[in-house]
């Protein structure tokens, strides 16, 4: 098969983004032509204002563009406006999402300052109310959102699915001429729950451009299937996330596999990586993973990328590993300053390679790269800048010298003079 025919069969680019209705969430646009938005959620007791402010600030600084907080009781609802005010005083204006279950209608009614302070409400049609109370309690939340001009995420979850709807569909399936699997019925129930709830919200008075939908499960293949179904039947903005993804590498791999496929298919307007943190672990890891997923797939750029080889018998020295880690840490530390001073620096590529096999080639492909000596090689390290060998480093100050070269490159290429040169 020649390359031209092969490219027709295996496209090299993602499918076009699904056109969804854009939603303004506290100044951050979700959907439409806006970039995919990264969000996260605190795990503090929201009534503890100090710890919640501290964690929201940490998540926002890590790059979370929306942050969700739990609003589960009176004390939490009363704390929300104070959290918002404290964050503003710190010049952190990240939009806040209130996560409501069971008594959201009561909390939003009893604490109007909370209703006003939040930028979006997240509700679950499976537990917003039961039996005869369901429509009334759902309606109260939607009316409150409409009154204050807030967005609402109607988030269906297979762990708390509307049991009346599920039972009705299961009963109909059992007497159907060609019944489908229980899994298929559950996915249909999830999609119907989301769509029926959004329709009802519009009837009550919430505009279409204030509604975001999600349908979360914890199984990768089921998640992909249910979002394909949902996307094919509506144009609401979609929030993607694998619920209860798990801890460590398992959670990262499962979330990346599911969301990566959906994003490649043009689905999804905002994402969260729902990782279970290690005891005392850094909550912002889920933000970093979400950013790296989007950047690795080429949808957004957040931080300069460091390419580094995995090491082998030719790289018995740990020098390249230490330098790669050092450079990655240096880039992360410098980004808050660089982002303000050097627009576009987040798209820079840096290579730190460990031997002559792929080192020079990878370094040439990067914006700036260094090829360190492998086992038995001459103890010199050529540096490549914009595809050309620029210099050779050696000696104990090699790491510091390379970092200085990176600093100078950033200033020269992304500073004011570099921007003018590029424009010319």
UniProtKB/TrEMBL annotation:
Q: What is its EC number?
A: 1.17.7.3
One biological-process term from Gene Ontology?
A: terpenoid biosynthetic process
Q: Which reaction does it catalyse?
A: (2E)-4-hydroxy-3-methylbut-2-enyl diphosphate + oxidized [flavodoxin] + H2O + 2 H(+) = 2-C-methyl-D-erythritol 2,4-cyclic diphosphate + reduced [flavodoxin]
Cofactor(s) needed by this chain: [4Fe-4S] cluster
Instruction: Describe how the cofactor binds.
Output: Binds 1 [4Fe-4S] cluster.
Location of the IspG TIM-barrel domain: 22-290
Q: Where is the IspG C-terminal domain?
A: 306-407
Key word 4Fe-4S present: yes
Q: Which residues does the annotation say bind [4Fe-4S] cluster?
A: 309, 312, 355, 362
Extract one GO molecular function annotation from the record. Answer: 4 iron, 4 sulfur cluster binding
Tell me the enzyme class. Answer: oxidoreductase
**Annotated pathway:** Isoprenoid biosynthesis; isopentenyl diphosphate biosynthesis via DXP pathway; isopentenyl diphosphate from 1-deoxy-D-xylulose 5-phosphate: step 5/6
- Note whether Cell wall biogenesis/degradation occurs among the keywords: no
Key words, A-Z: 4Fe-4S, Iron, Iron-sulfur, Isoprene biosynthesis, Metal-binding, Oxidoreductase
List the InterPro entries: Dihydropteroate_synth-like_sf (IPR011005), IspG_bac (IPR016425), IspG_bac-typ (IPR004588), IspG_C (IPR058579), IspG_TIM (IPR058578), NO2/SO3_Rdtase_4Fe4S_sf (IPR045854)
One matching Pfam family: GcpE
Q: Which SUPFAM superfamilies match?
A: Nitrite and sulphite reductase 4Fe-4S domain-like
Name the HAMAP family for this protein: IspG
The record describes the protein's role as: Converts 2C-methyl-D-erythritol 2,4-cyclodiphosphate (ME-2,4cPP) into 1-hydroxy-2-methyl-2-(E)-butenyl 4-diphosphate.
Q: Which PANTHER family does the UniProt record give?
A: 4-HYDROXY-3-METHYLBUT-2-EN-1-YL DIPHOSPHATE SYNTHASE, 4-HYDROXY-3-METHYLBUT-2-EN-1-YL DIPHOSPHATE SYNTHASE (FERREDOXIN), CHLOROPLASTIC
Q: Which family would the database say this protein is a member of?
A: Belongs to the IspG family.
Report what the protein is called: 4-hydroxy-3-methylbut-2-en-1-yl diphosphate synthase (flavodoxin)
Organism name: Faunimonas pinastri
Q: Which gene encodes it?
A: ispG
